[in-house]
Amino acid sequence: MSAISTRDLTVTAPHGQRLLNKLSFDLAKGERVGLIGESGSGKSLTAAALCGLLRPPLSMTSGDLILNGISMRGAPPSLWRSHRGRNVFQIFQSPASALTPARRVGPQLEEAARIAGARARDVIPNVLDKVALPSGVARQFPYQLSGGMKQRVLIAMALILRPAVLIADEPTTGLDILTELDILTALSSAVTETGATLLFISHDLHAVQEVADRVLVMQSGEIVEDGSIKMLGQSGASAARQLTEAADRLRTKPC
Ligand SMILES: Nc1ncnc2c1ncn2[C@@H]1O[C@H](COP(=O)(O)OP(=O)(O)OP(=O)(O)O)[C@@H](O)[C@H]1O
C-alpha cells in the first residue's frame, strides 16, 4: 500500500481554469520524492491538496486522494484534522505561518507531543538536541527566532509527530547557503529516523538532489515527468530538460 496516492486529482478555479489537472502518482512508504517546476506550475497547490488545506473557493473538483488507504475525496474538515500531524505534516516555505506567533515554542512542541501521545518532557529536549537548537528556544516566541531556527522547530515537530508523509514546501527559501545545507541535513536525518515518506517541493534541482532520488516535474498544473533525477536531462518533457539545463548553467556560472 502506498503512503499517499492521487488519482486524476483535479482542482478547478471558480472561473473554470484547471489549476491542477488530473494528477496521478503514488508515493511508496519511506520513499523520498522531489516535486519541481517553474513558478506557478502548481507545486504549492498540490501540497495544499495533499494536506487538505485548499482554501475556498478552491477544492478538489474531481479525482481522488488516498491517504493511508483512505479516500479523502469530499472528506470533512474533522477527518482532515485527524490526519494532519500524524499521517501528513507540512513544513511550509514560510515557517512563521506554521507557528502560532503569540505562543512560545515550548507549548507548541508540547501540543505536538500530546497529538503523538508522547511525554513532552521526555521528547522535547531530545528533538531540540537533534535539530541543534538550544533548550532555551522553548521559552522564546517564534518572532524571536531566525528563519533557519523556525524551520528547525518545524523539523523538531516532525520528529515528535513522526508523520507517515512529510511534505516540505520550499523549506530553505530565503536562507543563506550554509543554513540551507544544515536544514536539508536535519530534514534528511528526520526522514531517516522516522521512516516518513518525503515529498520535497522546490524549484531548485540541486536542493532536490540532496534529499530525493525520484522527481515529479510539474508544468501548467500537470505532472509532465516522473522518474529518476539522473535521467531528467534525457526526459521527453521539455520542462524537465529546461530545468536540468538551467540548474547546470547556474552551477557552472563563474562567480
Ligand atoms: N486561491 C487561488 N485562486 C486562484 N488561483 C490560484 C490560487 N492559488 C494559486 N492559484 C494559481 O494556481 C497556479 C499554481 O500556483 P502555485 O502556488 O501552486 O504555484 P507554485 O508552482 O507553487 O509556484 P511558486 O514556485 O512560485 O511558489 C498559479 O497560476 C496561481 O496563480
Automatic annotation (TrEMBL):
Q: Protein name, please? A: ATP-binding cassette domain-containing protein
Principal subcellular localization: membrane
Task: Please report the stretch or stretches of sequence annotated as the ABC transporter domain.
Answer: 4-245
According to its UniProt entry, this protein's organism is Roseibium porphyridii
- Write down the InterPro entries for this protein, in alphabetical order: AAA+_ATPase (IPR003593), ABC_Ni/Peptide_Import (IPR050388), ABC_transporter-like_ATP-bd (IPR003439), ABC_transporter-like_CS (IPR017871), P-loop_NTPase (IPR027417)
Where in the cell does this protein reside? Cell inner membrane
Tell me how this protein sits in the membrane.
Answer: Peripheral membrane protein
Top-rank lineage group of the source organism: Bacteria
Please give the family membership noted in the entry.
Belongs to the ABC transporter superfamily.
Which keywords appear in this protein's UniProt record, sorted alphabetically? ATP-binding, Cell inner membrane, Cell membrane, Membrane, Nucleotide-binding, Translocase, Transport
**Known Gene3D superfamilies for this protein?**
P-loop containing nucleotide triphosphate hydrolases (3.40.50.300)
- N-terminal signal peptide: none
Xref: CDD domains: ABC_NikE_OppD_transporters (cd03257)
GO MF annotations, alphabetized: ATP binding
